[in-house]
Structures are given as structure tokens and as C-alpha cells.
Amino acid sequence: TAFNRKVAIKIIRSDLVHDTIARKRFLREAEVSAHLKHEHILPLFEFGEEQGRLFMVTPYIEGGTLARRLQSGPFSLVETHQLFTALVQAIAYIHKRGVIHRDLKPNNILLDKAEDSEQIYVRLIDFGIASLQGKAVNPQMTIGGQEMGTIAYLAPERLDGIAAPSNDIYSLG
């Protein structure tokens, strides 16, 4: 960037440029992210459209995803406590603002370490299918009436299509 920061740029896939549902999800992710300010939620630096392609600019997180980190073995008890505490704080924060993530999984959690310590920094990402608490899920945001999300982390009550804090609490567990 102009200030010599590393950033990540998320761009809507070229095959989805004209897909109105995919565009709505991408726009929702940007809108929700722009209004969340928490140390454990990845901030949005910029959002826009260039030649029909939507994009988001965020900080680049060197540590990768929790899913990737889990492949290298178990966490220590201290690391587990740091990770879980940070995630609980992030989820509590979004729930207080009426946001339900609805797709909490290891691929949507970025990890990083401070330069001068072993402290794990957690960044929650991907609010593309987030919903407002207590409201029915917009049928246009799903495909063929199917509930969106990753089945291994999908709370059973999500199949009813109502967003609730229990969705994220189940996935967090």
C-alpha cells in the first residue's frame, strides 16, 4: 500500500461476477465487516468494484487459518485458552450487535502471533452469510432453499432457517 502495509485482497470469483446471489453475499460480508470493530474480527480497510469485480481489502494475516494450523498437531493448553477466549469475545461482541455469523469454522478463523511474544491473535472472518438475530434467513441468499454453511459445524436448529446465537455457540463448541 501507499503506507507500505501488507494487505489481502479478496475478489469475487470471475464466474460469479454476474451471479446476483453471490454478489449479495459479498456485499453483505463487506457491509457487516465494515460495522464491526473488535480486536478479534478482521477489519475491512477498503471495499469497491473494479471492472464489475467486487473486492475487499483487509490486513494480511501471516499465520493462516485455524484449519491449517490444526493439521500440524494439537495446541498446548495455554494456546487453547488464548484461542477460545478470543473467539468467545468476538462472538459475544457480534451477538450484542445482533449479528449471527452462521458459518463459524476453522477456515473462517485466522491466526497470528505478536512479533515479541507467544500470544496468539485471532481474527474472525467471512460474514457472507451472516444474519440479524431473530430474523428468518433471506431465501435469496441460499441456493434452492438449502441452508448455507458447513455441515460439520452446522447447528441442528439452523435447518429451521432461523438465525439465533445458539447457531454460533454450537459451532464454537
Q: Your description of this structure?
A:
The protein has 173 residues and is an alpha+beta fold. It has 4 helices and 7 strands; from the N terminus they run βαββααββββα. The chain has helices at residues 20-34, 66-70, 77-96, 165-172; strands spanning 7-11, 46-50, 53-59, 99-100, 109-113, 120-124, 131-132. Strands 1-3-2 form a 3-stranded antiparallel beta sheet, covered by helices on one side. Strand 2 (46-50) and strand 3 (53-59) form a beta hairpin. Helix 3 runs antiparallel to helix 4 (165-172). The longest helix has 20 residues, at 77-96. The protein starts with 6 loop residues before the first strand and ends with a helix. The relative contact order is 0.16. The model is unreliable at 139-146 (pLDDT under 50).
